[in-house]
Amino acid sequence: MKYPAPEPRFRIYKGPGFYRDILRELLRGTWKEGDDVATLEGVGREQYGVPHCLVTAQARVAIHLAIRALVGERREIVMSPYTIFEVVNMVISAGGTPVFADLEPGTCNVSLAGIREAVSPATAAVMVTHLHGLACDIEAIRDYCAERRLPLVEDAAQALGCEVGGRPVGTFGDVGIFSFGLAKNVNGLLGGMALVRSRALYDAMRTAQEAYPVPSLVETCAKAAMGLITDLTLSPLLYKAFFFWMFRFGYFHDIDMLNRRVTVEDNPRRVDGFPAAYRRTMLPFQARLILKQLPGVDAASTLRRSNARHYHDAFANIHEIVMPPYPRDRSHVYLHFPILVPDRHALVRHLMRQNRDCAVQHLKNCADLPCFTEFRRDCPIARRTAQETVLLPTYPAYGMTEVERTARAVREFFGR
After folding, report:
1. Same domain membership, residue 179 and residue 304
2. Which terminus of the chain is more solvent-facing, meaning fewer CB atoms within 10 Å of its CB: N or C?
3. 62 in a domain, yes or no?
4. Distance (Å, rounded) from C-alpha 151 to C-alpha 284?
5. Mean pLDDT of residues grouped by 10 in the chain (416 residues)?
6. Pairing of strands 76-79, 123-129
């Protein structure tokens, strides 16, 4: 059954008046005025119950600052290989040596067993990722790190609002890092936030960041323009009338110029130095955008869980699909709904023929990438995950009608 043109697979999450507020700030010249960055740090401390909070220009900057402060004579950072390659570069540029640990099957997250195998006397810290909004086995990993006296860093860039046992992720480790980028559930154009327990670690991170300038007006306008162009491209009217059909054509005919517009991680490369473009701090107007959106996180997460529940129920009897767990608590916020299928491109082609807009997950298994050959490690579960993952939409505005159509098209592919 062929359906009408779909809602886009991804929409930028933003509060009301988002671009109006940005334009007003730029026209009035108030974009770098105010104490709102400090206010956001205070909200982070109070909301998460941690002694220190550092707001950064990007989440990857916070990762770099944390790893830089943690490495010393011991330099190895045990981490997931299933992440953006720039996270690996942040470890390298901070003086760390990435040591990849394999994943927990079906979760896309690093496993405790993989961490145990990767830890050595040279381990400086363990870094876990709560990918797609699903908490990893953070309580067991925290206990193991405490037993081994290893610092624990939580990359919670995709998991804002996620909780385990009533406790937010990002607060189990020594450092917890969130992201406010375009693809996240709170959007500051860019931005990151680090929750830090140790005063010494916090001081080291803040001191390093104090040397970074604020972005220029040109850089700020470029960020806003990128967000606006992306948002217009993905607006339902334009997307259904034109852009879906253009990207669909590009996918079916393997047109690189078009496919690159909707893919990430398409040019993995190793960068040993910390890029000059990352040496920036967050602007006050970005903090104001973030503060305005934070109260809506829980309601949006509830809608995402509702969408995910429908996928779970729809695919329950399809043994070819590996789904993430559906916890009854708040330990998954479903930034996306990832499924693993043996031939994901065949599934995506089928979905596009039925006018469903879904995508392969373009994250790579960094343990296999040629640019990181020096750190290669056999991680078979990560390798399979990188080859088989498809992302189904869950964002709040997607709507149950679209969820049902997408789920039905997936079931049709498997003959159900």
Report:
1. no
2. N
3. yes
4. 31
5. 87 82 93 97 98 98 98 97 98 98 97 98 98 97 98 98 96 98 93 98 98 95 91 90 89 76 79 96 97 95 96 96 91 96 95 93 96 97 97 95 97 93
6. parallel
